Amino acid sequence: MKEVQTLENNIAVLNQTERISGSEAIIKCLLAEGVEILYGYPGGAIMPVYDELYKYQDKIHHVLTRHEQCAAHAAQGYARISGKVGVAIATSGPGATNLITGIADAQIDSTPLVCITGQVGSHLLGSDAFQETDIVGISTPVTKWNHQITKASEIPEVLAKAFYIAKSGRPGPVLIDITKDAQFEQFDFQYKKCTSVRSYKPVPDTDEKTINAAADLINNAKKPFIIWGQGIILGQAENILKSVIEKTGIPAAWTILGASAIPTSHPLNVGMVGMHGNYAPNVLTNECDVLIAIGMRFDDRVTGNLQTYAKQAKIIHFEIDPAEVDKNVKTDVAVLGDAKQSLTKLLPLLFNNSHPEWVQKFKDLYKIEYEEVIKNDLHPTKEGLTMGEVLKEINQQTKGNAAIVSDVGQHQMIACRYANFNITKSNITSGGLGTMGFALPAAIGAKMAAPERDVIAIIGDGGYQMTIQELGTIFQQRVPVKIVVLNNEFLGMVRQWQQLFFERRYASTEMVNPDFVAIAKGYQIEAQKVTKREDLATAVKEMMQCDGPYFLEVLVEKEDNVFPMIPTGASVSDIRLG
Amino acid sequence: MNEQKLYTVTIYSENNIGLLNRISAIFQRRHINVESINISTSEIENVSKWTIMVWLTEERMKKIIGQIDKQVEVIKAFYHPEDETIYQESCLFKIKSDLLFEERQIQNIIKESSARIVTVNRDFFVIEKSGRKDEIDLLHRELSVFGVMQFTRSGRIAVTKDEMKISTMLKALQH
To answer: Would the pTM count as exceeding 0.90?
Structure first.
């Protein structure tokens, strides 16, 4: 049986000084930080660490992915569902550069990661040695912090700092590059957790006056509107946000990364904002009188044309990262600080309120969206299957309790629009970077972090083939993830743009696909393909009842489009329904 | 607000390898060419002080300061318009020694500009001048007439007229 790890007993064991190698110290640091699982791929410059991983395999579980990019994505999935720091490890050179896409994804989506890379011996640095690459230089623009270690004695302090920086404030990825000689070197090891870095202030001070000003605006608003983002999830502010919404009766919408923080079924949850978000919250962004943005960053996919974005509204921005304030949208009141703390202070200042006429407007616009878009997506009358009806079936069978890991493209928008969520941290997707290939490895990490939950990856036939090799990881580790490929034999979103904006010139978007079921079966993963509506429910049922991993391919309509849609450069209120 | 001005960016930071790359990437990503950059020790032990000169609108300047300030190893970043700083630049001219005797005007230029002769040998002499950008520009123009073998100018260094409460800030951060 696996030994139970707790932070306390790990630290207790580590409290004495002992003479060990740098590589053993790395493992002990990971244990002290409560790391139970890490994802990676061995190679020359990281071999001393792998040798220690072998010795410590009863205490720390290393998952061999089939590509370093997927080690980073798996660590992201692990972090996103658990709120803990994900750890990825790779060798120097190509191993390290392969991590970059995952690191960039984690940076833009504020996911706490610690990536450890091996590096050539310090005497070889700068000599173009075998598998030498300047990974610190390469990763600088896409990391929250990075550092190269050339002496074993630096390992405990730097790794402690890495975990602290990755997790605190606005989280993000940290890369630590460790030369091979530092891994071999013996030194007197002692571990101390990092609790502060003098040049770094993770959470800015909150000015009470801004909270009062925000409360005043909210209390006097006739048509207030909340848009929340991932800051609510990262700040564990779901409950307090719910209290704010319920006390004030304010309709609230979410950005793609904010999904699942408040249950889909909540009467004041009015859906997703942004390019393929819901009709009402997009249109009414340009009608509200006070826009309350919480833990979101006004991404261009959310705002559309900034010149016409919520110009009539007073803008309140609750934000942990001062650099995000006034970056894209000018605010009237900026409340800096942690979302949970700020909302906790705000709540008692708010009046009990309701806005029935204003909320009715959202309902009216929903009806229009339902008639024009949703009905056809979820209850199609044409022959071909839609992506939406697959989501509807999954909702029905999981009752909204599954975690949905989506890839990037049409299926992602459909998954985020239609998946029902009862539980927070249940929508895991690549938002900012839009990384195709994210979902399959991220689902592995998510399932391993939350084995008690159903984790369903929703992937397109394009993205699936970008990281399809991770079926090998699923097979070897027996990770019981459910994989649903919505196959339209196209790179659907690009094809949709080609249709709408490039006069249907379908340049390199048509996919000639292999027998996906045969491939899954090659990895001994149970698999089936659905091509007819009448087989869908049984297939989803079979997938959900399967104890092990399961692959379900659904052949969907080839040229369906995702609507509503805000064309690039258009105003949020000019969102198109078809 | 939308007019470009020459701003002095002052950064107080840890003295760590890699931070230069991180800061320069912030400008590079946004296609901004900096006029000059100087990094030195500051009034506080183990704290580096950066002076970066850059032409920007104030709106962009503010956003970039935000991006710089959020870097883990940056203690604090500020920006100031020119009139809020006291600054100096310095420059070196290498000129053929013959000219010093053949062109009497050169000696007058040196005297009037308060430049200083650093060294003289048989082949060349070197003039050093510290001052404001326009003073150096003027000297450069005047000497160019006679032919300059080499010219170089340093990045600007500046102190601000307002107080920098970095020590207080560092104490607060250490808690």
So the answer is: yes
> Once rounded to an integer, what is the mean pLDDT over residues A244-264?
98
A531 with A422, same domain?
Answer: yes
- Asked whether the predicted pLDDT for residue A12 surpasses 70, the reply is no
pLDDT, average across residues B137-166? 93
Query: CATH number for the domain including A508?
Result: 3.40.50.970
As a whole number, the mean pLDDT across chain A is: 96
Check whether residue A427 and residue A315 sit in a common domain: no
What is the percent of chain A where pLDDT is above 90? 97
Alpha carbon of A521: minimum distance to chain B alpha carbons (Å): 45
How far is the C-alpha of A395 from the C-alpha of A399, rounded, in Å? 5
CA distance B142 to B68: 39
Please tell me which of the candidates B25, B62, B72 has its beta carbon nearest to residue A145.
B72
Same domain, A527 and A421: yes
CA-based nearest residue in chain B for residue A170: B70
The tally of domains found in chain A comes to 3
Residue A200 within any structural domain of the chain: no
Encode pLDDT of A129-188 as tens digits.
999 999 999 999 999 999 999 999 999 999 999 999 999 999 999 999 999 999 999 999
Other Cβ atoms less than 10 A from the Cβ of B45: the count is 6
Contact by Cβ (8 Å): A141, A102: no
Sorted by where each starts, the structural domains of chain B and their CATH numbers stand as: 5-85 (3.30.70.260), 86-153 (3.30.70.1150)
pLDDT digits (tens, 9 = 90+) for B51-96: 999 999 999 999 999 999 999 999 999 999 999 999 999 999 999 9
- Is position A157 within any domain? yes
Backbone angles phi, psi at A115, to 5 degrees: -110, 130
A351 is known as an active-site residue: no
Assess if residue A291 is contained within a domain.
Answer: yes
pLDDT at A52: 98
Residues A423, A313 share a domain: no
Query: What distance in Å separates residue A201's CA from the closest CA in chain B?
Result: 7
Portion 3-32 of B in contact with A at CB < 8 A: 13-14, 17-18, 21-22, 25, 29
Residues ≥6 apart with Cβ < 8 Å to A327: A297, A298, B63, B66
Domain of residue A131: give its range: 7-189
Computed on alpha carbons and rounded to an integer, the radius of gyration of chain B in Å comes to: 20
Question: In chain B, positions 56-115, which contact chain A (CB-CB < 8 Å)?
Answer: 62-63, 66-67, 69-70, 72-75
Predicted complex ipTM = 0.92
Contacting residues of A for B75, CB less than 8 Å apart: 198-199
Q: Is the domain of A228 the same as that of A333?
A: yes
pLDDT score recorded for residue B80: 97
Question: Which residues of chain B lie closer than 8 angstroms to A196, CB-CB?
Answer: 173-175
Q: Which one, of A435, A557, A569, lies nearest residue A501 by Cα?
A: A569
> Which among A141, A147, A198 has the least Cβ separation from residue B170?
A198
The answer to whether residue A573 sits within a structural domain is no
The rounded distance, in Å, linking the Cα atoms of A482 and A461 is 15
